[in-house]
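Might I ask for a little of your time on a matter of protein folding? The record follows directly beneath this note:
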Amino acid sequence: MAGEIGNPLGYVPVFGEPNTITGYAIAIVSGGAPVYASGAAGNVGSQTESYATTDINFLTAASGALFNGVAMETTASGAPVTVATRGVIVAKAAGTVTAGTAVAVDAGGFVNLGSEAVSTLGYYTFKKVGRALSSAGSDSFFLLDLNP
């Protein structure tokens, strides 16, 4: 578990069919943990024949603007991992989450998307990854409508 605080029961879907992406884990990935893609530039050409599943690499400890979805299963480093990018899941809060609010990823968990300071580049450092359908305190669970 590389810094994430995902659901200890792993990926727990509640409603809807998830959209998924398959890639490879760069480190151990726990099911239910927020993940982000990382890798070399220029590894995909202009045609689909140049694409391979190994072109997408996922890491845990997603935070701020680094988020692509939630790992659907616990996976060893170097093994394929499927990542959900849509759907309603049981998620773990890393801070306060209020029903109806936009939710962001912080410290590998989920928090209310508040008025974070703008970075030196002029961008907000936290991005919306979905909306809370229920409320939770830090280290508790809530329903997250995942839609980055």
